[in-house]
Every structure is written in structure tokens, then in C-alpha cells.
Specification:
This protein is 37% helix and 25% strand. It has 205 residues and is of the alpha+beta class. Strands 3-4-2-1-5-6 form a 6-stranded antiparallel β-sheet. Helix 3 packs antiparallel against helix 4, helix 5 packs across helix 7 and helix 6 crosses helix 7. The protein is globular, with a radius of gyration of 19 Å. The chain starts with a helix and ends with a helix.
Length: 205
């Protein structure tokens, strides 16, 4: 399903919020999937052999929650085994991004972190972005933007879309991004929603 997300521009990311391994080769997980249409995602999910059961719960916008029970096979088995290290805590959400990458944060002993890197490297390439003390300060709204959303906002700012005189149009943004104006507009709306929600959550100045 991560590959499905990569191949369809309508979806920005899926985020693994919670997971529980209830048998040796089975687990249950809860995802938040950012992007329409729900029907095509559900249709693709029905064709995944490892899925035992699933249910989708739509949100007020076009995103939805996804509950899945599935068998662990191949790279999934390797990944789950790698992150279940003694003393290790995964910080949700795990982000399955539209560029084909998976991003996660973990807290724990040095040896547990290194084991993740070593074990997961057998199934996929691993890039360690940063190592240091865990900081739970105020969250910058930018960290919740997908790479594609941030790219869309950057292009919009650069071409004058947000200037008072609106020197750039939505079509200009779409042309720079190489997508339709509808897709460009949706990327900007989602980014704006994320940033504005973060501003309100931060409280008044």
C-alpha cells in the first residue's frame, strides 16, 4: 500500500499511529491516510494477500483512518523485528511518505538504535538524519507538512501567489510543480490547514 501511495499523486502520506503484535506473525495497526479518494485506496487494499481484515473511518475532510489486521511477511517481518529492541521506544507517527521513504523517530539505548540500522539495512537503505537528546519542545508546524506540501508552498511563495497583488496564479504553481491546478490547490489547502491549526494550538501571543 505504500507503493500504491507513491504511484498516486492524490495521496500525500500515511501515518502509522498505533500498532500491536498479537501473534507471532500477525499484528493490528491504525493508520491516518492523508488524501482522497477513499474508494480507490480501499479497492487496492482488498487485493493485498497479507491483509486479514480492515476498516476505514472517514474524517470530515477527504482523509481517513485505517484499521488493519495482517500477516507479517518479507520486509514487513524484518522491519517489525528490527524495531522491537529491548528498551526502545518508537515515537509515533511513523510516516510512509509519497516519495517512497519511511520516516521514524526512536528513543532508547545506543545499541538498540544501532541494531535497528543494521537489521533494517538488510531490506532497505537507511539514512540516519540526526542523533541526540530527545527534545519535546513546541512543535514547528513545518514538521507536519509532507515534502510535497512544503514544495508546493515554497513554489507558491516564490512565484508571488501569496503577495498582496497575487502576482502568481494557481496555474503558475501547478506548472512549476508539474501537476494539475486542482492538485496544486489541494496541496496548498492541506498545507495551510496544518499551519493554521498549529498556530491556533499554540495559543495567543
Amino acid at each position: 500500500m505504500h507503493q500504491f501511495l507513491v504511484e498516486h499523486d492524490d495521496y500525500d502520506a500515511s501515518r502509522l499511529l498505533y500498532g500491536n503484535q498479537y501473534a507471532a506473525d500477525e499484528h493490528a495497526v491504525l493508520f491516518y491516510v492523508d488524501g482522497p479518494p477513499r474508494e480507490s485506496y480501499e479497492s487496492a487494499l482488498e487485493g493485498v494477500p497479507s491483509v486479514l481484515a480492515f476498516e476505514l473511518a472517514p474524517c470530515r475532510d477527504e482523509s481517513f483512518y485505517l484499521y488493519v489486521r495482517e500477516r507479517l511477511t518479507g520486509p514487513d517481518r524484518t522491519f517489525v523485528d528490527a524495531v522491537e529492541q529491548p528498551g526502545l521506544i518508537l515515537i509515533p507517527p511513523l510516516e510512509y511518505r509519497a516519495d517512497g521513504t519511511i520516516r521514524l523517530k526512536a528513543v532508547g539505548p545506543d545499541e538498540a538504535i544501532q541494531t535497528i540500522v543494521d537489521d533494517v539495512s538488510e531490506a532497505m537503505r537507511v539514512d540516519v538524519r540526526s542523533v541526540g537528546e530527545y527534545c519535546a519542545g513546541r512543535i514547528d508546524a513545518r514538521v507536519d507538512l509532507t515534502r510535497r506540501q512544503f514544495e508546493a508552498v515554497s513554489v507558491a511563495v516564490d512565484c508571488g501567489y501569496y503577495r498582496e497583488t497575487r502576482d502568481g496564479s494557481l496555474e503558475d504553481v501547478a506548472d512549476r510543480l508539474g501537476c494539475s491546478s486542482g492538485t496544486a490547490g489541494e496541496l496548498l489547502r492541506r498545507a495551510e490547514r496544518t499551519v493554521m491549526a498549529a498556530v491556533v494550538d499554540g495559543g495567543p501571543f
